[in-house]
Amino acid sequence: MVQLPRRQFLKLSGAAGATLGLAACGGAPPPNPGAAGGGGAGEVVVGTWGGDYQKFQQDFVEPVLARTDGAPTVVYDVADQVARMTKMRTQGQTGGPGTIDVTALSDQQAQEMAAASLLGKVDPARLSNFANIREDFRNDLWVPHIYSAGVIIYNTEHVTTPPDSYEVFWDPAYAGRIGIMSIQWATEYFMAAALEAGGDPGNNWDAGWQRMLARKGTVRVYESQEQLGQAMMSGEVWLAYNWKARAYQWRKAGAPLASAIPREGTFPVVFTVGVPANAPNPDGAYAYIDAMLDPEAQEQFAQNMGYWPTVTNVDPSPELTAEIGFTPEEEQNIHRVDLAYLAQNNERWRQQYVEQLINQ
Question: Has this prediction a pTM greater than 0.90?
Fold first, then answer.
């Protein structure tokens, strides 16, 4: 068993603010030539979400990778994080080589895989921009890619009073106009628990479960960020608790949306990449991850996806900082989270959420 650093999350810092997170970038998987296996010589298999995240990987990471000597061919193994983690566990049990060279997960999910000894130790010497990774994001078992934090996203044409509390998600006036995702349960647990606690719920995210159940019949469920985004932009739903990066993306597309951090506070998320312990092509994996950390690719993700860079040698413009960053006052209301606690409870929460709320 890998001895894990008990990674309590970050203090978003600096004038540049902070933000990040991607959990659940899903989307209907496109044809997936990597799903049957790969990672042969000259080929790197990247396990990732579909939708926007994969598109931006192709648009911004691959051009950087292509400039390196002996760049591998990239094959994407597209699935949501649940399927990807299941594949890693199943392949890990065989004791042989796996089929994924790079696995993209949120920090919480990466902690889960690390606890199961399914991630190899990161070799900083193989990452040219490692020295510029923010120190509060560094970890021995995964590499931070992008980050953000949760906010209340609302349609300004229908929610005319800016919400300042998670209570808005239980307001009968908005029944049927609230969007949640079937594959993003941690945000919902945090929100309900924070409301129950009147602030930082600490390690008691179960405290809001009965509140969550009270939302049956009042929410609309979507399977991916892209589907939820379409619903928010079309006016099908007016409210969602999601990453600030997504509010930026959808607003950039012309939707009348604004966002706010509620008085109970919120939590951050880092989207990471790791090299599975049984990766067939670790050389290709490091080449790909090195390109993900390149300042050029990092800045493009910030501009186009709204996630804050995880390296310090990127300097977003003041205008972009205002859109995707957080003020010092907001940072004070972004609570640290205990990733080990989240990893220990994640699967139980998923089952409870799906069986008793989503599928009811």
Answer: no
